[in-house]
Design a protein that fits this description.
about 220 residues, mainly alpha, 11 helices, about 80% helix
Length: about 220
């Protein structure tokens, strides 16, 4: 891949990745609750999902999903349902006044059981993989940056590797932001507002995806 082409690609994906969306909001929420370091797992989970979707697009499954309306419908509904589940879970969370230790660490007894690498990675991955439209997005984006005269394998690793690094960096930035604003959430009432706002966003996004599917 030519360097100038790579720079253009870097600019395009940076604009896409740093635009706030469900993954960014989840990383910010995890940064608030679990701290920046632990939320790195959430960022890696989301980036891994994007890596898989890019690979699927490159090998041609994007075209298959575009041609198979029923397959696309099933994947889309499953992804939307998971977003709604996350939203409901946020609304049902219990809140209490944090003690001084939990204020400093961003963790409490309830959160400790949820803060393992595998748990946060899984949540980040499921949110990242939940929108099959990304397969079509990658299928439309990537060909513009692929030169048929150059090694396809080398270009594949350049494109996916760049996305992975920028994606992890962007989501880690959102997790750090969530951790930085944690003093505002020392009051349980403020934390409750944030979690329910986040939950409402996930529910709205999931419902909108299902509604758009049903109305077609």
């Amino acid at each position: 891949m030519e360097f100038n082409t790579w720079l253009i690609y870097l600019g395009v994906i940076s604009a896409v990745i740093f635009t706030p969306g469900p993954s960014a909001l989840l990383c910010m929420s995890h940064g608030l609750k679990f701290g920046t370091a632990k939320s790195f797992a959430t960022a890696v989970g989301g980036a891994t999902a994007a890596f898989i979707l890019m690979t699927i697009s490159i090998v041609g499954l994007g075209a298959v999903l575009a041609a198979s309306e029923s397959a696309f419908l099933v994947v889309k509904i499953l992804g939307a349902s998971y977003l709604i589940y996350l939203g409901i879970s946020a609304w049902r969370s219990s809140y209490s006044q944090p003690d001084s230790h939990s204020c400093k660490t961003g963790l409490n007894k309830t959160n400790l059981s949820e803060a393992s690498f595998s748990s946060l990675f899984r949540k980040g991955f499921l949110v990242g993989i939940s929108n099959p439209k990304d397969i079509l997005f990658f299928a439309a984006l990537l060909p513009s940056f692929i030169n048929n005269e150059l090694s396809q394998v080398a270009q594949y690793f350049a494109l996916t590797g760049t996305w992975f690094v920028v994606d992890v960096s962007g989501m880690f930035m959102y997790a750090s932001l969530g951790s930085k604003i944690s003093p505002w959430f020392e009051k349980a009432s403020n934390l409750k507002i944030f979690e329910r706002t986040t939950g409402s966003f996930f529910i709205f996004t999931g419902s909108a995806l299902i509604a758009s599917t049903v109305n077609k």
